[in-house]
Predict the structure.
Amino acid sequence: MRELLNGRIEPGKGPVFWIVGALLVIGMLFLPGLVGRYTLLNFNSFLLMVFLATGLALLWGFCGVLSLGQSAFFGIGGYAYGIVAINLADSPWASLAGVAGGIVAAVVFAALLGWLTFYGHLRGVYVSIVTLVVTLVIESFLNQTAGPQWKIGTAHLGGNNGLGRFSGAAENIPSLTIPTGGGNSLVISGSSPTFYYVLIGLIVFTYLLLRALVNSRFGVALAAVREDPDRAETLGYDIRLLQSMTFCIGAALAAMSGLLYVAWGNFITPSVFGVTANVLPVIWVAVAGRKSLAAAILGAVVLQWGAQQLAISGGEWALIVQGALLVLVVLLLPEGLLSLRQQYSRMRDVRSSSLKSQSRQG
Amino acid sequence: MLLSVEKLFKKFGGVVACDNVDWSIGSGETQCIIGPNGAGKSTFFQLLTGRHAADHGRIIFKGGDISRLPPFARANRGIAMKPQTLGVFPELTVEHNMRLTLQRHMSGAALRDAIEARLADLDLAHTLNRQARELSHGQRQWLGLGMAIGSNPDLLLLDEPTAGMSTAETQRTVDLIHRIGATGTAVLVVEHDMAFVRQLAVPTTVFHQGRIFASGTLSDIETNLDVQRLYLGKQGVAKLRN
């Protein structure tokens, strides 16, 4: 177990890493007491994207598959949550059933798409194109579902007005609701400290789980698939199965973000499937360093916060700056900011070994 | 027979790269396939590993037809290979490279011990935590070989195992191949370097234009005039005779 957590593949180990990480998490637990409701609402929206980002890091950084369509699973997760929750609106279990529905729908769709893609022997940039096209097709499709005939049960798809919005009769999608027994329920709104604590708990849990996964023999196999799929296969690894499985895990994580996003804001529109929505996670993960789960988490939160600060201070700058950041990182630091740290430690090793040899000579 | 190939046929566009080849190898046997560039020996190698699927014909391994199986399924039945391109993962550590082969067969402390033991055998114990790309060319060749035999395969396929090696390293490879053969693993070496084939001194098959051109013991092959012509051209043979 210790080996899985402090393992071989995910960078970041040793007491310093764990102590800093633990202090960061403990420090964050005090945030709801320090800031207002509006700041917390914003912060929750950043944190809920962490699952999408770690899923993409797992898929791209650890398995070598760059999906440009993670938003397809984000959106399917969100829509499925909403459709299930609206249909079961009278039940106290509505939102929890929506959570299950969102994840199941995304994983089933990912299994199908992954099977077609990977067992069709598609690789590299072709996978990126297929995933991007799929999500854009879904966006186009949902945009034309404004008519009354487009509904699933009692949930109107609502076209580009968004799920549940139909001819003025707007039905809000329920927040996360947990039945507490005796007919009572705990409603967790998107701006509440409870939502924040739930997110922090889920993030810590997901991080440790994924960390154990990438440090397991499965993770070593993924690294081989990333570096040289043909060689990995001749060593006995079913690369198409490994890629499909990772694709499904990435989809489940994206769906998690999607359904939390809907539970947070009580709405969802087809724009979540759009190009911007697909490129932003790629920027977070690429800039921070795709080969680290911790970097993906920090990248997602810090860059979203930074983008919002820019947006507040002036219009559309945020997207341009983020795009420029992506280009700069791709050109100068293809492995992301994380590689700066590795370069530094390599430099230090070289210096200390040359110092040693000097002292030996002296 | 451990593996036998019946009427194996493969065409790329209009080019027949493997033309109704019949060939076989027994358990523990070591054999060589040689031929000039473009003779079809690489295609034959890829048909055995499963990288390419044959148009028709059968590959029987341990009594079962494997000609429709993907590469990983063939590997899991006991066919290991080392490609010409070394077959190591340059960005992964030496330990991870070895782990990839061995973790399919063991786990925990046994796995850790086996990794260290195998690397010690290959003189690579001190490189455990280095990235494979930091090794010398020769060390990477050894690591690639070590990974290929790590799973104790029934059949080991080697594609030009001495490419880029020094004379001393080539001799070590010859010794290693004989040692692997002695453990009961059948070995097929695909090679175009006649000098190495001579050192190896095992039954040899010559490929030419996708077909088996000649086969027999090394001395049969070496004294075969047609083979000499194929390798040296008519003038070369005439020069040899004078």
Remarks:
- DSSP finds nine helices and ten strands in chain B.
- Chain B has two domains: 3-78+154-241, 86-152.
